[in-house]
Write a structure and sequence with these properties.
mainly alpha; two-stranded antiparallel sheet
């Protein structure tokens, strides 16, 4: 099992679980802020993934 920078154990999510996680984070941010104030980097940081992985699932923020 992998460990994050805070020393917490984390498990690898399935493709569908990861996609749902990213959608949930994005939905929360878009409900709190206008579209032009939400950054891909915010979504990635909150989800605990790299920006590259986020782009793998969603090639553009509108996706």
């Amino acid at each position: 099992m992998a460990v994050d920078q805070g020393g917490r154990a984390r498990r690898r999510l399935s493709t569908e679980e990861r996609r749902e996680q990213l959608l949930a984070v994005g939905a929360r941010l878009f409900s709190e802020s206008p579209y032009n104030e939400v950054w891909i980097e915010q979504v990635a940081e909150i989800a605990g993934v790299s920006r590259g992985l986020l782009y793998h699932y969603f090639p553009a923020i509108r996706d």
